[in-house]
Specification:
Elements (H helix, E strand, L loop, with lengths): L3 E8 L1 H23 L6 H20 L1 E7 L2 E6 L2 E6 L3 E6 L11 E7 L2 E7 L4 E7 L6 E6 L2 H16 L1
Parallel strand pairs: 7-9
Antiparallel strand pairs: 1-2, 2-3, 3-4, 5-8, 6-7, 8-9
Length: about 160
């Protein structure tokens, strides 16, 4: 059985509010089209596609789950799940990237100081970087309310597996 050492679940408030407001606007426009008997027109179908896209966007970015176990570290945001085994982790440290780079919550691909990164973040929370070997995105960045505790738990896990 896999023993959980640390676990947290973050709610992405700002991203959910922004996407929720956009969803409400699109829903209002859809209702207006429906009430004016224009529901069969091309604009209605575009609004319907936008509605579905925003709805699933909210579901996919609302929660970020972080778990540290005997096997390694796993990050889940919506349908994205990244599990990293201890032998693939090199280090863990605070994210130094500016808040502007991480100003949008959700899942992002990019690079920072020449290293490719996959980021699963929530707006307003601290971030840590998990440096991995054998990945096309060596830096896995994720938000946490307790960055120092997460770093300590990961480094302790690395020491246990190094023996």
């Amino acid at each position: 059985m896999d023993r959980i050492i640390y676990q947290e679940r973050l709610f992405s408030r700002v991203t959910t509010v922004i996407l929720g407001a956009a969803l409400a606007i699109v829903l209002g426009l859809m209702v207006r089209h429906w009430l004016t008997a224009q529901a069969a027109g091309p604009h209605y179908w575009v609004l319907l596609v936008m509605f579905v896209w925003l709805f699933f966007g909210i579901l996919n970015t609302a929660y970020l789950k972080v778990a540290i176990s005997d096997k390694g570290v796993s990050i889940r945001m919506g349908v994205l799940l990244r599990s990293v085994q201890w032998e693939d982790i090199v280090d863990c440290y605070p994210d130094e990237a500016s808040a502007a780079w991480n100003s949008i919550g959700g899942v992002k691909l990019g690079s920072y100081k020449g290293k490719r990164r996959l980021a699963c973040t929530t707006i307003g929370d601290s971030r840590v970087v998990l440096l991995r070997r054998g990945s096309s995105f060596p830096e896995l960045v994720f938000s946490t309310r307790n960055p120092q505790e997460v770093i300590e738990k990961v480094r302790a896990g690395l020491k246990r597996t190094a023996r």
